[in-house]
């Protein structure tokens, strides 16, 4: 630390002017000054500082005791220690502390000072200034209360990766107190995060790639799985996370249970690994040969319960241990169902739900239930000694049948093999039925979601196209949505949003939030920023315990703008990927706006910003959810760059074709996340609405569009 020598010298008019200006600036900023003479012990304060500490000229004693008397008792030890260190060592002083004035009011004060030394180097004076920081501290306290009330763990890091805030829930999850965390580097406290998904994703977000979300495991001592969302901010990184260890543990336990027996694990895994029941059944035949039989046929049962047995059955999987016999088995499978008599072992197993056993002379006994012909001849050449038909049952219904055949060389039916075969059949039946229910769940989820995503309005010379693509897995159908509607004044509102989560619950919450947006927008006529703020407050009032990202855009046009062939759009962004606009010349711009505000569900009373742009008629605007541009191995920034290049390439397509091509080119065969998008093309108004835009669709209470002269322009 440096020490400054006191200086002297006479004043000049220039110096006097500088002094006066300095005093005026200090007064305007409400800054008080102090001068503590350590030789005499005299403490001198100006009037501004006396007022700040609640003193008058009459009751200020000009001693350090007057200062100590006003400092908050809890802060006094720290403050006294810091001052004494400065007196002992010299250098500069900076302190922020509380003072209690006579009426009981507590104020926050920030003091900065410098020690002055004599010729021997001893500190003889302490000069400085102080000012009131109460309002800043109160604002920080309000934000802190919001973060402390959150049901989600939250912490923030500065650009040096140091903790600058930690809420109570984060303390609990991280198993460290704020005292241990604040000011410390995250990589030092949690070294196992280095080289992991935590470092990779945090670095991406801090580098400006935008928000990131991921699941990752942190080893002991935490030994926990976390679902993380991180957003960059001007000061560093904001991180929200949930402990999902129990969910991950349940998934791992299910996987371990599937592996307890090798054959059972394979059967369950293969059947659960595909939604195509026919493919799954074909795999089952290959799994049980030769472990349980020399050859096998697997049959699927259709749902038409009142049809004849032969019409309800389809042989769709088979296997034979002997390569030389496989052509015979393949031909037999192609013919045998049509050759069945009305009474057969397959029919009995299907009708009764009970296992059918032929423990000897199976070739003759099975032939007896086949009509004369090629199928019976082939069975004679295959010459099975034993046969077992097991129903594959799930939830009280037979969904399939498995026929196991043993040759003479294999011997009789082994009791343990039979028990294992029954277990395989039971698991296979449940898996097949799960497959059916899985598809139904997906259909229900899609129907639920699509029922909430209504057709958009089609205002005058605006063509609006919407698309929704569910994720590749049923459990991933979630909370993405689009909307396009009109407010009573004739303005068109576009909405794109994403409720955090990937399940049917997220889809249901999405419906509630979407209804809030629509209802508030139509009844209040609010602009984008006000609308998002009111929706956020409504979510708090209705205790909607969720986090939502979204963009609301409002398309407006004044009479003079209509004459000039332009339109302006106002929008507000709540932590969502930025929209893009395709200009009439084919260039693409990202609508980054002034800033991205907080997501909904965090701080309902926070201020929200609106951005505005003027667009030529012929422009296309695209709003989309993050599933279009972000994947595990494709950062958000990369995906947005790809989308921008693709839009330039597709700029000349009609709007429906453009949206379809964007989805086809940007998404993999099995998307990890659901995707919603809404696009609007601002057709020229000096000619008739183009046929590809379809008819106008507007509410009956919205003002009629102005008349158009098709020959104008």
Provide the fold topology.
Blueprint: H1 13-28, E1 31-37, E2 43-45, H2 47-53, H3 64-70, H4 76-89, E3 92-100, E4 106-117, E5 123-132, H5 134-149, E6 153-158, E7 163-166, H6 168-174, H7 178-181, H8 186-189, H9 197-209, E8 212-218, E9 224-233, E10 236-243, H10 245-258, H11 262-272, H12 277-288, E11 295-301, H13 309-312, E12 313-320, H14 326-339, H15 345-352, E13 356-358, H16 362-367, H17 374-382, E14 386-394, E15 397-406, H18 415-452, E16 462-469, E17 479-486, E18 492-499, H19 504-524, H20 528-541, E19 548-556, H21 559-564, E20 566-574, E21 580-582, E22 588-590, E23 611-616, E24 620-624, H22 636-650, H23 655-666, E25 675-682
Antiparallel strand pairs: 1-2, 1-5, 3-4, 4-5, 6-7, 6-10, 8-9, 9-10, 11-12, 11-15, 13-14, 14-15, 16-25, 17-18, 18-19, 19-20, 20-23, 21-22, 21-24, 24-25
Compact description:
Helices cover 38% and strands 25% of the residues. By secondary structure, the protein is of the alpha+beta class.
């Amino acid at each position: 630390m440096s020490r400054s020598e006191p200086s002297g010298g006479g004043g000049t008019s220039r110096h006097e002017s500088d002094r006066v200006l300095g005093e005026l600036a200090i007064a305007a900023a409400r800054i008080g000054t102090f001068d503590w003479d350590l030789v005499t012990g005299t403490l001198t304060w100006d009037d501004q500082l006396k007022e700040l500490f609640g003193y008058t000229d009459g009751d200020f004693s000009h001693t350090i005791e007057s200062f100590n008397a006003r400092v908050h008792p809890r802060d006094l030890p720290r403050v006294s220690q810091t001052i004494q260190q400065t007196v002992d060592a010299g250098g500069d002083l900076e302190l922020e502390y509380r003072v209690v004035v006579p009426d009981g009011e507590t104020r926050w004060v920030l003091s900065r000072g410098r020690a002055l030394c004599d010729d021997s180097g001893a500190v003889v004076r302490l000069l400085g200034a102080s000012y009131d920081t109460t309002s800043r501290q109160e604002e920080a306290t309000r934000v802190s209360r919001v973060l402390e009330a959150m049901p989600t763990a939250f912490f923030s890091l500065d650009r040096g990766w140091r903790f600058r805030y930690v809420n109570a829930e984060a303390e609990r999850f991280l198993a460290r107190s704020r005292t241990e965390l604040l000011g410390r580097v995250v990589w030092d406290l949690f070294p196992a995060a280095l080289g992991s998904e935590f470092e990779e994703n945090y670095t991406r977000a801090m580098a400006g790639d935008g928000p990131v979300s991921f699941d990752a495991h942190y080893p002991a001592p935490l030994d926990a799985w976390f679902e993380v969302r991180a957003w960059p901010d001007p000061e560093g990184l904001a991180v929200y996370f949930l402990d999902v260890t129990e969910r991950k543990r349940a998934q791992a336990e299910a996987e371990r249970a599937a592996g307890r027996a090798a054959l059972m694990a394979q059967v369950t895994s293969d059947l659960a690994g595909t939604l195509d029941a026919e493919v799954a059944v074909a795999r089952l035949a290959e799994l049980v040969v030769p472990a349980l039989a020399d050859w096998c046929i697997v049959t699927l049962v259709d749902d038409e319960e009142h049809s004849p047995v032969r019409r309800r059955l389809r042989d769709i999987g088979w296997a034979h241990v002997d390569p030389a016999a496989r052509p015979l088995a393949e031909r037999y499978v192609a013919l045998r169902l049509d050759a069945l008599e009305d009474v057969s072992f397959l029919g009995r197993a299907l009708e009764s739900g009970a296992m059918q056993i032929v423990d000897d002379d199976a070739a003759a006994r099975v032939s007896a239930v086949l009509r004369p012909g090629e199928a019976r001849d082939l069975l004679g050449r295959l010459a099975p000694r034993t046969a077992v038909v097991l129903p594959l049952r799930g939830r009280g219904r037979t969904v399939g049948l498995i026929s196991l055949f043993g040759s003479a060389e294999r011997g009789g039916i082994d009791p343990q093999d039979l028990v294992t075969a029954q277990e395989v059949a039971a698991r296979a039946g449940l898996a097949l039925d799960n497959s059916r229910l899985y598809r139904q769940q997906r259909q229900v989820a899609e129907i639920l979601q699509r029922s909430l995503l209504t057709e958009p309005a089609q205002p005058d010379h605006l063509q609006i196209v919407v698309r929704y693509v569910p994720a590749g897995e049923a459990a991933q159908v979630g909370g993405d949505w689009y909307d396009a509607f009109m407010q009573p004044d004739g303005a068109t509102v576009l909405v794109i949003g994403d409720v955090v989560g990937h399940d049917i619950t997220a889809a249901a919450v999405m419906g509630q939030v979407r209804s809030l947006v629509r209802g508030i927008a139509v009844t209040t006529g609010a602009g984008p920023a006000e609308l998002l703020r009111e929706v956020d407050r409504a979510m708090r009032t209705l205790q909607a315990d969720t986090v939502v990202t979204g963009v609301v855009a409002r398309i407006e046009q004044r009479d003079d703008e209509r004459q000039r062939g332009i339109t302006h759009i106002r929008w507000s962004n709540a932590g969502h990927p930025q929209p893009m606009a395709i200009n009439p010349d084919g260039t693409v711009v990202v609508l980054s706006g002034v800033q991205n505000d907080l997501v909904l569900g965090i701080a309902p009373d926070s201020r929200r910003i609106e951005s505005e742009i003027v667009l030529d008629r012929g422009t296309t605007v695209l709003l989309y959810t993050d599933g279009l541009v972000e994947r595990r191995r494709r950062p958000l920034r990369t995906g947005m760059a790809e989308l921008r290049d693709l839009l330039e390439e597709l700029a000349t397509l009609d709007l429906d074709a453009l949206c379809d091509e964007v989805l086809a080119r940007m998404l993999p065969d099995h998307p990890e996340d659901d995707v919603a998008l809404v696009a609007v093309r601002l057709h020229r108004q000096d000619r008739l609405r183009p046929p590809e835009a379809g008819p106008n669709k507007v509410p009956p209470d919205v003002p009629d569009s102005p008349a158009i002269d098709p020959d104008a322009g």
